[in-house]
Amino acid sequence: MDLPRIFRVKQNFPDRRIQDVSGAVQAELKASPFASRVKPGGRVAIGVGSRGITNIATIVKAAVQFWKDAGCQPFIFPAMGSHGAATAEGQADVLAHYGIHEATMGCPVVSQLDVVSLGKDSNGIEAFLDKEAFNADGVMLVGRVKWHTDFAGKIESGLFKMMAIGLGKFAGAQRYHTYAYTRGLENVIRSVGRQVLASGKILGGLAILEDAYHNTAKLAAVAVENMEQREEELLELVKTWMGRVPCDLDILIIDEIGKNISGAGMDTKVANRGVNGEYNPWPGPKFQRIYVRDLSSLSYGNAVGLGMADVLHDRLLAKVNWTPTSINSLTASSPSAVKTPLHYGSDLTCLEKFWPTVGKLDPGAVTLGWIKNTLELSPLALSENLLPLVKDRPDLEILGDPEPIELDPAGNFRTTLFGAHDLVSAH
């Protein structure tokens, strides 16, 4: 087939980045009541999750320094449920890959899977807390507040979810997702989170909000007294900052998926897919087919989310480690998210096979979009037939004339999203 010519587009999202991230962390925490709740010399457990959060090492190190300056003894522990293949070593490795380890943070990183029961919540669900964190004098959470990939609500991903699924380790994550299958994840997150708060072990949380460019845009010290209400407010705010693909498409090409990009491998509300295979369940641009080309190296073999694609390049499947992938999927009660779609050995074949499946008899009418991943949405590329749709939009800047997609002898793209050559196909 003849591939369409493409043109590259910059999306002009508001840039909300914080210039001095470390300073902003210190300012927020110093203005909070957190330190007054721990006696000098007390041990403070800092819970850190497993997402690809911009500046996460800088943010956590600044939090560690805050507690040191307060005369306390901080340590870091993974708060990430079943991630890292649900092993203590794997979860420590996830943090280390983000630059969070004892040598860089200046404090111990304590990773283990034992938990302490905190009793049952109002729904009869037993809540758990990391044993080492429970034995500390207090726990502070560091996590990003954002929309969740599986549901829509007033609380989705954030501090409450970290208190429930993150602090409960593998034991908690399994139970909570099982209950959520019938009761709804937001309900479980709220009720378990309230039970964790009732333990008196939580000192507060540092909420991280990112803008559409994935910049650190807001840091908020959230006190336990109004954590639930404050998280609702922060989620409502950050949803207004969400970046999206700028238009409906017949075929969306995604260069990579991975756990560092989204808990579901791809952000379902950007790709407009459900973890159980639903097509276009969310408001926003709609995509008839999704082609995924690769697995991020920072996902370390966890390919959860591949089942939401319609077609894959063989290179992605060659990188899958099915142990963490299956553990993560089954713990989250979403086996459909790891079903293997059709897959082929070249970019050209993947597109040739799916080009006729979008309901258009004229191949020239098929619209194509291309993004790096569901976090990085600018620049992106669009097929030439979309020029009339985007040329007069003030939020979009066309970066050059349409050009052909060049292929190597094997039928893989030599052209890349960023206009260079032999970068994506080489790996």
Model description:
- The chain is an alpha/beta fold.
- The protein has 2 domains: 6-13 and 243-398, no CATH class; 21-239, LarA, N-terminal domain (Rossmann fold).
- Helices cover 29% and strands 19% of the residues.
- It has helices spanning 21-30, 56-69, 88-97, 102-105, 131-134, 159-166, 169-183, 185-198, 227-239, 268-271, 314-318, 322-331, 347-354, 387-390, and strands spanning 6-11, 43-48, 73-78, 115-120, 126-130, 138-144, 202-210, 216-222, 249-254, 287-292, 311-313, 342-344, 368-371, 380-383, 396-398.
- The strands form 3 sheets. Strands 12-11-10-9-13-14-1-15 form an 8-stranded mixed β-sheet. The chain has a 5-stranded mixed β-sheet with strand order 3-2-6-7-8, sandwiched between helices.
- Helix 1 runs parallel beside helix 2 (56-69), helix 6 (159-166) packs across helix 8 and helix 7 (169-183) packs across helix 8.
- It is globular, with a radius of gyration of 22 Å.
- Residues 420-427 have low confidence and may be disordered.
